[in-house]
């Protein structure tokens, strides 16, 4: 079964880390005072505005919550300032000019999904640990909602920058990546030498037992005790030579042995099902659109940052 690699939750959350941090520190003047600034102290200036210590502090706390293993240094704080100016100030202006908006219901829904994502990925599935960290940092759902909303606005604004992907390109992607949309059930036996693989193939063609031969000869720990069976798997997850034979070998035939980096395989394809283009077109379109966005955003952010003349004083 084909599954999207870029879920909406991850797209929104990665919008900041994958795009904003493309902008390097070299383009941002930084000074360190050594003393912790008070809440109203200006810690950064840019063409058109300033950032105060309290505004930076909130963003730092969100970073601590969502990435608890990260050590917050002044260099990281400088990146966070850049991120804040770019997303909450400069891009916000462009989003407003483009008439981009997101309903509060969508923000609330995405916030729930994002919190679950953070709980699973950063807190070992412990909601209580996540809630405790939020309380420790004195953060509220409203603070996180503001962060999530910025990501959703960016996601929507980026969509206004991309060109419509022609149907022909969508179909071409489908045809060139059929492994992503195919599930296969195979039996195989993995051994170290070609002569042994040829011997096993002959025995199987003469009615030999997959269960017996796999248990006796196979060096694949993932399948040797199941008669060499891999059921309803995506060839996209396999090494190229194994995937190629799984996609092309006739069904129900004991194929000739072939080599992969693990050794020599004897394979029988039991079933193979490819989802039709119509069922995966929406996912393909989303993936191709996202690829366009990922190419367009870094240059835009670099341009905004260079014109902003951000100066940081921590």
From TrEMBL:
Q: Which organism is it from?
A: Sulfoacidibacillus thermotolerans
**Residue ranges annotated for the PpiC domain, each copy included:** 181-271
Q: Which domain of life is it from?
A: Bacteria
This protein's name: PpiC domain-containing protein
PROSITE patterns xrefs: PPIC_PPIASE_2, PROKAR_LIPOPROTEIN
The signal peptide here is 1-26
Looking up Gene3D superfamilies in the UniProt record yields: 3.10.50.40, Porin chaperone SurA, peptide-binding domain
Q: Which Pfam families match?
A: Rotamase_3, SurA_N_3
**Which InterPro entries does the annotation name?**
PPIase_dom_sf, PPIase_PpiC, PrsA_foldase, Trigger_fact/SurA_dom_sf
Keywords of the record, alphabetical order, are: Isomerase, Rotamase, Signal
């Amino acid at each position: 079964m084909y599954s999207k690699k870029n879920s909406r939750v991850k797209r929104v959350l990665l919008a900041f880390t994958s795009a904003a941090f493309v902008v390097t520190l070299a383009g941002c003047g930084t000074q360190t005072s050594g003393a912790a600034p008070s809440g109203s102290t200006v810690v950064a200036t840019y063409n058109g505005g300033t950032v105060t210590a309290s505004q930076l502090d909130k963003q730092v706390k969100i970073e601590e919550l969502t990435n608890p293993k990260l050590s917050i240094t002044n260099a990281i704080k400088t990146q966070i300032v850049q991120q804040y100016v770019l997303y909450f100030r400069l891009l916000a202006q462009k989003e407003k000019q483009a008439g981009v908006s997101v309903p509060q219901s969508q923000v609330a829904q995405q916030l729930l999904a994002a919190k679950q994502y953070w709980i699973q990925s950063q807190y070992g599935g412990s909601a209580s640990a996540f809630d405790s960290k939020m309380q420790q940092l004195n953060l509220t759902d409203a603070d996180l909602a503001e962060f999530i909303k910025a990501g959703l606005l960016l996601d929507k604004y980026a969509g206004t920058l991309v060109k419509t992907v022609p149907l022909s390109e969508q179909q071409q992607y489908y045809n060139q990546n059929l492994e992503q949309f195919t599930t296969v059930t195979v039996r195989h036996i993995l051994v170290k030498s070609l002569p042994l693989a040829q011997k096993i193939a002959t025995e199987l063609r003469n009615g030999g037992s997959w269960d017996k031969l796999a248990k006796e000869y196979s060096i694949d720990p993932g399948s040797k005790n199941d008669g060499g069976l891999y059921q309803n798997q995506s060839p996209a997850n396999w090494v190229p030579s194994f995937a190629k034979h799984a996609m092309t070998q006739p069904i129900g035939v004991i194929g000739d042995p072939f080599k992969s980096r693990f050794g020599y395989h004897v394979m029988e394809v039991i079933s193979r099902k490819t989802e039709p283009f119509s069922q995966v077109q929406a996912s393909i379109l989303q993936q191709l659109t996202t690829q366009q966005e990922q190419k367009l955003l870094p240059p835009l952010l670099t341009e905004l940052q260079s014109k902003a003349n951000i100066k940081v004083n921590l």
